[in-house]
Structure formats: structure tokens, C-alpha cells
Amino acid sequence: MSGWSAPTQDTLFVLNDVLKITESDLPGYDQLDEDIVQAVVEGMGKFCGEVLAPLNPVSDAQGCTRHEDGSVSTPEGFREAYAQLIESGWNTIAMPEEFGGQGMGHVLGTVFEEYMNSACASFMMYPGIVGGATSTIISAGSDALKEAYVEKIVSGEYLATMALTEGHAGTDLGLMRTKAQPQDDGSFAITGEKIFISGGEHDLTENIVHLVLAKLPDAPAGSRGISLFLVPKILPDGTRNAISCASIEHKMGLNGSATCVMNFDGATGWLLGKEHGGLAAMFIMMNAARLAVGVQGLAHAEHSYQRAAAYALERKQGRGMGERPDPSAAADSLLVHPDVRRMLMDARAFAEGFRALVLWTAMEIDRAHAGDREADALVSFLTPVIKAYGSDRGFETAVDMQQVLGGHGYVKEWGMEQIVRDARIAMIYEGANGVQALDLAGRKLAKDGGAVAMRFAALVEADLKDAPEWIAEPMARALGDTREAAGWMLENAGEDPNTLGAASYAFLEMIGVVAIGWMWVRMVAAVEARDDGFAEAKRITARHYAQSTLPLTSALRAKIEGGAQNLMALPEDAFLRA
Amino acid sequence: MSGWSAPTQDTLFVLNDVLKITESDLPGYDQLDEDIVQAVVEGMGKFCGEVLAPLNPVSDAQGCTRHEDGSVSTPEGFREAYAQLIESGWNTIAMPEEFGGQGMGHVLGTVFEEYMNSACASFMMYPGIVGGATSTIISAGSDALKEAYVEKIVSGEYLATMALTEGHAGTDLGLMRTKAQPQDDGSFAITGEKIFISGGEHDLTENIVHLVLAKLPDAPAGSRGISLFLVPKILPDGTRNAISCASIEHKMGLNGSATCVMNFDGATGWLLGKEHGGLAAMFIMMNAARLAVGVQGLAHAEHSYQRAAAYALERKQGRGMGERPDPSAAADSLLVHPDVRRMLMDARAFAEGFRALVLWTAMEIDRAHAGDREADALVSFLTPVIKAYGSDRGFETAVDMQQVLGGHGYVKEWGMEQIVRDARIAMIYEGANGVQALDLAGRKLAKDGGAVAMRFAALVEADLKDAPEWIAEPMARALGDTREAAGWMLENAGEDPNTLGAASYAFLEMIGVVAIGWMWVRMVAAVEARDDGFAEAKRITARHYAQSTLPLTSALRAKIEGGAQNLMALPEDAFLRA
Hints:
Two copies of one chain form a homodimer.
Chain A: H1 8-18, H2 34-52, H3 55-62, E1 65-66, E2 72-73, H4 78-88, H5 106-119, H6 121-124, H7 130-140, H8 143-155, E3 158-163, E4 179-182, E5 188-198, E6 207-214, E7 227-232, E8 243-248, E9 259-272, H9 278-314, H10 338-369, H11 373-404, H12 416-424, H13 433-445, H14 451-464, H15 469-492, H16 499-526, H17 533-548, H18 552-561
Parallel strand pairs in A: 3-6
Antiparallel strand pairs in A: 1-2, 4-5, 5-9, 6-7, 7-9, 8-9
Helix pairs in contact in A: 1-2, 1-10, 2-5, 5-9, 5-10, 7-8, 7-9, 9-10, 9-11, 9-12, 10-11, 10-16, 10-17, 11-12, 11-13, 11-16, 13-16, 14-15, 15-16, 15-17, 15-18, 16-17, 16-18
Cofactor (chains A, B): FAD
Family (chains A, B): Belongs to the acyl-CoA dehydrogenase family.
Domain Acyl-CoA dehydrogenase/oxidase N-terminal (chains A, B): 79-157
């Protein structure tokens, strides 16, 4: 049965025809013409298909091993693949030229992220945080730290981690206990236990640079008392720092990624950013990580879609009710069954629409880096949506695609159930999706009285003017529901402090529905003058989205306007069964 | 962390206050008074909590083992637990007295099914088919077969399987190749390979009775040429039949259940029902199995809800925006967060509403067995809904409850991810959920021009008259959407043969939404005169359902009225990525 291959045609369509990246004068984009873009996209696809994809089933079956000395082995083939990755240079494509990267912009970097995650999601976890970690060190680190670490992380010689969570403090970082004691030489001694550290220990690089949240002795209580530190596994003098991996988790999936409990026993580290300013420094990294998680949702959706589509075409079961491809055959392909198509069309509509959205957002990030503050605000507004809506739909798509395979979808050897297990974590880590919803409703929507949300709505609306009625009309209705819901939330937030929290998840889903719908409007416009098969498929898929997904906003709006009162009414103890 | 305990209070509420089973004069119900019902329900809960629940994590970690001689060992403790089950007699509670059962009716049998599935779903797979198998043999078997097998299956001395699927023929049974050759003594020699046979081989009972679909030499093509046979592992003379387990599957979950590839090499069997009438005979068993799968969805929802509720109450993270239970604490329980409550209230609303629905349906089955043809038609109409909507929402609830645990939900030792993996198969087996939807829309709705559907709607409507407006009004709207959608489907089915298939899934979801809403109306009525905490919790949960779930029907109706044309428009090859 077929596995995954890079969806280069669709990627190139978004880059060239929708975003028109080769016409942009953003920094780094001047290197790009259509030939280079094609060569890069195809090269990245080839690397991921040939080097990473074969590791995916192996890594799931084998997992990681922690040895008695605390060292951790990654699955067979990961070391060689990592060496090939560095050799290929694809890992540095979006990295700043100043530190040895190729500076081609986030758009192409995001394409590579999608492909790596589709090919082998657990492998991708090791380099996954590199972009965010380098941004953090560049913007918050001293010159000495930048010089010592950034180039080596960019090149792939070192890898990095994000060490935030503690056993009793997940989302609520203010509760953390890890301590940082100032030393005479300006360094800090870090002591504490961190859990759920992806790639906390492994055998891919000699050094691992941990970015660790901890509290200084004079720290104010809560999340305003947290500082961020750079704590390397190997110190500059070549000795081992006082860091050890106490254990690795046994998880539902993503088995090739070592999820570590890490002990810091007076380990030497250096401050990143200001004292007690760790949260701000961390959010540079966290926002990058959240967007990356959304891309994982895309990758799982695309990978599972490809397997299910191939299966549906090959598998002969039942007979169609309408025109049959071969009336004399005992059975037709699964594609004659409308309900099988429903699942596959849902998957296409999400994967292609969401690909456009994450690549559009990546380009906005490049705009923001070039100083465009409106782009920055839009990225900030959409970050929780991309993280949560993307990972929710990515998981759901994988579950639907597993369904297309029937019983084979549940059996390990067919590879579908692994995608479901691997995809599940994306809804949880880097801020559980409910936390993303609260960020959107409580911070991004309410903070400025809805101003960014209005700008987003205006952008969408502007593109509806020239759109064909079959998509413009349901989009306008969905946008109207969203505006009404946002207005209702802002009006009622003062009266009941739980209003925004109660409405948050449905509101995030509405923005997700509308944002992807917007991308379909733009894609339909991009193929307006074409009548080839690709253009026709885009129109059919867009229409499916308009008919199946856009109507959801009315139910979401009704949910929101139900308010918080009844949600908060049940006494806490009544949640337990008598 | 707490695991599962039997939700006896809620069960007893449904049995006594909603269904009033002790007041019914249905056969077998005359044995029941409230004391007996309470003793039975609590006894079943105690058995499942003490004997089965401890096996659940062990069975997942250990799975089943097939040995070189083709024998299969179940996980540690299953043999002892199975012996205790037979000893307890709970397994025979709903079985016909004529064959050694206790004849107390399907309602109490269904309670036991729920509890067993919550406690250890993979264990439940072994006795899971017993009810359907005995019904099939009783109604389709010769007197000799009945005498030889039914009592031994009822008592638990033998177990049974359903052997339908072949490698190339899943849903499409007409394609099957297994052959049955008539022998001179009236028996048949069965030859072929069956896959996905739950409990095809194991060490719990000496004999295993396979109910096998096969084709006679003169069989017409397709599904009208299938016959059903009883094929025991051990023949009446004590010798082994020519049946062997070729392998067991490695699956996403339900590891304690041995899913076997079974070879029949001229095995001796006897006809059940008429020649070429296997499909009808099989559907006796299949309908029972489908309802049982719905009960699995309930069980997974309840089990995961209990774990998540306990975690949410214990785990202190973040501070509430409204009134805080303890303003001086550094953090509150997760229950102060509206979005955490959203997930838990969704889970309650589904689990409690669906419990009422499956127990109501079980009582209708008892009515149908007593000769009530309207009850029979209603059960037949709701069977695909209970199977598919129940397993979909059961899985989704488990996924949501996993989310409440954050990162711990993804780690094996917390027990939540196992529920998700175990729950996933329910959407696939015994007819994938898309097949259920087609059964509902194509057979149950369209066959009689919508007559049963109208009767169902009339029953619901009758209960809305006395309901409070806060639930009567949204229920009436949901019912209106459903009627409009059904009307639209019936009107358009003639024009485009794919109409019903395209609409089927959304229609099934609508019926599920309305049927559970109906049960909430009835539960609200049952606590009308009470103002204790239990009654208040019922009203709060009902209101949550009315606000959050009932509005979905408008979006589902819009989806349905989108029609089939665009869904079928994409050429088959265009589903593959270029």
C-alpha cells in the first residue's frame, strides 16, 4: 500500500499562484524565482520521502531507550538520517544568514516542516524547536551567548529543548519550583525537575542546549517571577553540566521522540532576557512552537489523506448507486460511495485550505520581521487558531482517514493507526488547545476591544467582493455569525467574568472555519481563468467546504450565546459519581 | 488516581424513575421490585469493579499470545475472571429461562454490558457475542443444534464467535469465497479463511462455537447466495474440528481481545436457517452486536469521564475568573475553568443521555420480543443510530477526557490513552459507521417512505408538550430541522441515486442528537418535583445539552441540503496527489 509523497504540486500552487512569493520584495525573497522555488520544494520533498519516511514505522515499533547511565538511544536510523539532514542543508533554509542560515524566509521553512512531519513526525521533534530557540537566543541573549550557541544550533551541530513543565505545574507556570541561584561569575546554578522535555536527552548531537524556566531567589510570586536560562548539556570547557535524564515516558504515540524527565542539580546556566522576564522571552519560542504544532496537524491530515485515498481507489467493495466506472465489475472502488467521498473531501478541504493558511501566515511572519506591525498583530491573532484548530482538525482527519480503511485502519501494519496516535499529542502540548482558545478570546480578541479581529474580518470581506456567489454568500454568512458572536462576547464579558472562557472554544473554531474559508476564496480566485483538472478539483473542493463546513458557524454562535452561567452552575463535588 | 466505579445511582434513576421497569408487566419484569433491581445493579457493579477493572491495564500491556501450535493465551487473570463470571451468574441475567438463563430482560443485561465494557473492554469481547449467538441459534437452528449448544453457551461453558469477514470482503459480504460442501450425513464441509474474528481462539473455554458465513455450491451470486453455519471447535464426538488460528492481529488497542485469522479446512458444520438465507440469520446476531457496540461507546464515555472529573477536581492549576472556592489558594481546581467544564459537561450530557437511550431501547427490545411490532420497528430504526452515534460520541468523549488530563492524558500510566485506543474500533466493527448511516437513510428511513421516522418524531413531540420551555423550544427546533431534512431527502432521492448516501451521515447525527435530547426531556420530567442535588445536576446537564448540542441540527440540515452532486464530482484519479 502507498505511503506518503510530498504534495509538491499543491505546495507550489500556494507559493506561486496564491501567495506569489517570487513577486514579493520581502528580505530573502529576492533570491527566489519559480525555478528555484520548484527545485527547493522538490528537493525537500525528495529528502523527506527517501530519508525520513522509511524511519516512521520503525521508530514507532522501536521507540527510544534510556540506558542505566542516563543516556538515551533514538530508534535505528535516526542518527544517520540526522547526519544526512545536516549534510543536505535543508534545515537552514529559513535560518538567518547572519548566523549561517540561508535566509530564504519562513514560507519555505514551513514547507519543509510540513514535509518532515508527514514523513516521520517523531524524528521532526528533535530539530522541531530549533527555529524558536535561535530566535529566542538572538533576541534575548547576550552577545557572548549568541556567539557561543546560535551558529551551532543553526547548523545542526547542537540541538535545543524547551524546559518549562514541572510535575505539579503544567499550564500554570507560576507554580513552578525550579530555582536559579546567582553565582559570582554571572552564571546561575539551576536546580529542579522538569518533565515532558522532548529531546531532553538523545544520541543525535553531542551538545543539547536547554532553555529552562526557573525562579530567582528574590522572584515575585506567580508567573511574573519566572526567568529564562540557557543551560547546555556540555559546558564551554568541555565538561558535563549537572543535568541528567531520570526517565523517559511511555506514550500513546510519537515513540521515536524521547520525552524526558530532566533533573538539573545545580547546573550552570545563563540568563536570557531580563530577570523575572522569562515569560516574555519564552513566548518568542512558544509562539514559533505553536505555529509549528499547527503545521503538524496539516502534516498528519495530508499523510493520512494520501493513504486513505490510495486505499479507497484500490479497494473494491460494494456497488455504486449512480454511474459505475465499470458496470461489469463485481464491485466498484470505495470512491463510488458518497459517504466515503464525504470523509475524503473533508480531508482535502481541510488539508489544502489549511496549507494555504499556514503558508500565508508564514509569509506574514516574514512581513512582521521586516517591520510590518499589522502583519505582526495578525500573526499573533491567528497563532492560537493555527495551533488549536489545526491540531484538532489534523487529528480528526487522521481518525476519519483511518475509518476509510475499515478494520485495516485499526491494525498496526497498515500504518494508519500510528498517524492517529502520533497526531493526538498536538492538541495537548505547547499549551493545550483550551488554553489557546482562552488566549484568543481573552487576550487577542478582548485586549484591544476587538480591533485586530475587525482587521482580520475586513481582510476576509475585501476578498469576497469578487468571489463567485456559491462561496461568497456562505462566507458572508459565516463572517456575519463570527462578528455577531464576537460582539456578544465583548458586550457580556464585563457582566460575567467567565463569559470569554465559556465562549472561547467555539469562538476559536469559528475563526478557524472562516480563516480556512477565506483561503478557499483566494484559491478559487487564483484558478479563476483555468479549466484544467487541477483548477476544477480546487473548485469542487472549495464548494465542498462551502457546503459542509461553513454552515457550522450558526451552531457555534448559538453555543457562544448560551453564556457561562449554566456551565459554571454544577457544584464541584457533583462532578464525581455517587 | 481514581479509576472507574459503577455509576449505580444514575443507572437506578433511569431504571426506576425514567423507565419505571418495576411497574411494567413485560415478561420477566414481574420478578423485579426496587430492592431486587438495586441488589442486581449493585452486585453487577461490584463484580465489574473488583474482578474486571484490575485486569484492564494488564491486558493492554500484555495482549494475547499465539503459540506455535495455533493455541492462544489470553492475558494474565482472564481465565480466573472468566471462571468467576460464570460462577457469579451475572452473565445469564438476560438469557432465556428455557435454556438456563434468568430471563430478567434486556434492560438489566444491558446494564451489565455497560459495566463490563467500562471495567475491561477487551475482556468483554469474549462473552460479548453470546446474546446474539444464542438468539440466532434459537431462532434459526434445528432442535438438535439448540439442544447441543444453546444451554452450554448460555451458561458460559462454551463461547461463540461471528465469522463473516474475509480479506477481500469486508462490508461487501457478497464477494466472499468461503465454501460449504454438503455431506451425506446432512452436515457441511466448510473451507475458507476468515479474518478479524474476535475470540476466534483463546483459553477461556474448551469449546468455541463459530457462526460462519459461507457459500453453497449452487449459490446465487452476491449477498443472496450466502448461508450461515454453526461450526464448533470441538465436535460432538470430542475430536478437534478442522479449524485453526493462523495468526492474531497487532492492533491499536483492545489488546486483550484475540483478533484472529481463522482457517476452516473442510471443517464440519451445520446449517442455521435456510440455504442462501444466511444474511437474514446473521442479522439476528448482527443487530444484537450493533446495539452492544453502542453500549461500548457509553461505557468508554462513562469510564473516561470519571477519570477526567476526578483529575479535574484534584489538579490545581490556574485561578478562576469568577468566585473562587478558596481565594487564598495559589491555584484552584481545573473545574474553575469554563472550558474544562465544557468538556466535562459535554461528557455528562452524552453519557447520561445515551445511557437512558440504550436502556430505553433495551426495554423496547423486550416489548418487541413480547410481540409489540411498533417497538420492533423503533428498535430497528434506532439500531444504526445507537451503534454509530454512540461509538462516535464515545470515542470523542474519551478524546476530550484525555484532553482534560493534559500531558498526562498522553502517557500510558495514567490509563486515559488506553480508553481512546480501545474505543476507536467501535466506530469500525460490526458494520463501519458509514454503513450504519446508509442503513438508516437507505433502508430504515426510505423503505417505508419515512413512516417509522414519523412515528419516532411523534413520540418525541408528545413529550415536549409538558416540558419546560428552555428545553422544549430548542428540541422543537431540532425536531423541525430533522423533519425538514428527512422530507428533503425523500423528495430528492428519486432524482439523484446518491442523495441518500450523501445525506446519510448528517442525518444519522441528527437522529442521534434528537434521540438523546428526547431522553433529557424525559429525565427532566422524572425529577420535576425534586430539588435535591441529583435533580439539580440533571437539570443543569439537560440545559447544557440544550444549549450546546441541540443547535447542531441547523448545520447538519444545511449539509444535507447541499446534496450529492458536488460530492460525486471529482474524478476518481484526481483523489491521488500528483
